[in-house]
Every structure is written in C-alpha cells, then in structure tokens.
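Subject: Protein entry, chain in single-letter code together with its fold tokens

Category: Structural biology, sequence-to-fold work with a learned token vocabulary.

Notation: Tokens come from a learned vocabulary of local backbone shapes, not from coordinates.

Start of record: The labelled sequence and token lines come straight after this line.
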Amino acid sequence: MFEKIEGQPRAVNQLKFLINSDRIAQSYLFFGPAGVGKLLSAIEFAKTINCPKQCVHDFNQSCPSCRKIEKFVHPDIDLIFPTPGFEVNRDGTYKKDSEREKIQDYLHQLQETPYDRYKFSKTTSIRIDTIRRIEYKIQFAPREGKYRVIIIAEADKFRHQAENAFLKTLEEPPDYVVIILTTTKISALLPTIISRCQKVRFNPIIPNIIENHLVSNHNVNKIKARISARIANGSLAKAILISQQENIEARNKLMDFIEILLSNDLERIYKFSDNFQHNSNKETLRDILDFLILWFGDLIYLRSDSQRLLNIDKREKLEEFNTEFKVSDNTVREIIEIIEQAKYLLNGNVNYELVVIDTFFQIRKKCLNGQATS
C-alpha cells in the first residue's frame, strides 16, 4: 500500500493503521505544503479501501478496480478540483468540447505525473453546482466498491455558497461515503469543516528523497537534481518543475546580482531592480532569491567540503567572491536570513523593486563588515 508516496512516513503509517484496524472514518482532511503528495495519497487511499484483492498497486499488476481508479473512470470515485467557470450539463458533463478537453488534460497529467498539475489559464474555484451534483450522487450506494469516495482537491478554493452547502453534506453522509479534502491552506476552511474531519498532516519532503526521485524517475542529472531539490523547499512538484526548466533567466540574473555586489555599482542595482516593476515577475524574483541562498551556502562548502558545491560550474566566480569579501560562516548564515526575510516579504503587498534594493544593501553591508578573521 502507498508505494508511490515518497517522504511521508508519518502520514502513510497513519493511513495504514486506519485501514489495517478497519477504522475508516467518513471524512478526512489531508493538509500540508503544496506538491508533497496529498492528492496522490487520497487516490491511493481510495484504491486501497475499495480494492477487493488488496493487490500491489503497480498498474500492470493491479486489479480492475484499481486500474479504473487510476484512470479516473471508477463509478464510485469522484474527484472534484477547482476549475474555471466552465458550463456544465445537469449530468455533470461539460457543454463545450474545448472545456471538456482541458478537464481531460488535467486528469491525464495527474495520471502520468501525479506530483505535477495541469494549470488552467483562468482563475479557478469550486462552485455550488458541483456540490449539488455530489449531494445527488451520494444518495446512491456504491455500484462496484465498498465505499463511494469523494476526493476534493484544493478545498480552500470553495466559493462561499459551495462551502456552506458542502458543510451540510459533511454533517451526516451515508455510512458508505468517505470524503477526503486536500488543502495547502487549512486556515482558509470553515472551522466547522475542519472539526468534522480526521486530520492527516503532510510535511515537506527532505531534499535527499527529492533528489533521488528526480534522478530515478525523471532522468535528471545529479547536479541539477541536487539544486532543484534544495530550491524546492520540500515540494516534490516544485522540484520537478524546476528540473524540467532551464531557469536560465533566474540564474543569469543571479550572476548579474553577484557581479553588482562585487563592483558595488549603484547605478546597475537600480537598473537591475527595474526588472521587478510588475507582479508578473514575482516568481522570477523568488527563484533568484532561492539561487542566492544556494550561492552563499556554497561559500561555506567552498571552504569546508567542495564536493558538495551546487554551483560547480561557477566555482571560479565563487572563489573570486570568497577572496573579495572573506565573509565568515556566521556572516553567511546571517545573509541567508536576510534573503529568507526578503522571500517572506514577497507574500505580502510590497514593492518588489524596493525589496531588491534593500536586500542588496543589507547583503553588501554584511559582506563588508562580516569578514572572517585570519
């Protein structure tokens, strides 16, 4: 059971215990960071509690029930996820071919790469008409399995009416219904919904597990896998995305930033900050800050364990930087705290240009005043 779930021993053991002790609850809340396996675990849980043979969940060896769930065609399993305002018929089918194709693309990507997600081009939500269809369907007992399972991904994207309607569904579901919610923002849910669910916490995945997954399952070379794992902050989905992209823009801008630090060219830092006048560049800036953390971490490795360098292709520039500033390990850690604070500020309503400029001057000051004593 749950062989596909990586880096979540606590959550997996909790679910296995519930299954083995035949203590299946009627509602669960899987919560934790994005991209760590919550939705995949919900699907695996649905397969396990409905599997008549308790088969090994390798697709080629699975029973018909498990294969249907993996293809999202099992009559007793409903996967609900936020979508744009697509027009839907009374039976739940989509009116427009183009919108139906987008839904199929989402399901296909989830089947092929469960830690990745298809991105809709418009804002998504879970609307009340979807909940009404679920209310209707759960009146009927399961047709093939033991349980009718309702999986609601990104439950924090309920619209207000839908969330209130769903609360009524959650209060007294039939005995044969199991409801699983997944969310990265547990605080965004109504307290009454949270209190009615058995909670299963998912944690950030440790970098070594992410690195090994990228190498084994995505043919990523070890250096890139290591960098991607470190930048991803425990999210396997983000690590996969990073490893598949070249991140050329963010890496090039990192090196521009390093050159400006070395030269203390104030005109260049103000020009550099002009790149971040618009919110659309927020993720690029976040990537640059992630790369910057790895850069300063490499300064410590350069002096203590060069085999662990991540920016191995920039070793000469690292050595130049180290010679120029000679910052102590403690100063490096203080600089990393400055960068982490800058990343935190990006979550709020801030001027990104000012974040860049302020971070530059704080780092430059630390570099000049925090040199290691010889």
Notes: The chain has a mean pLDDT of 88.
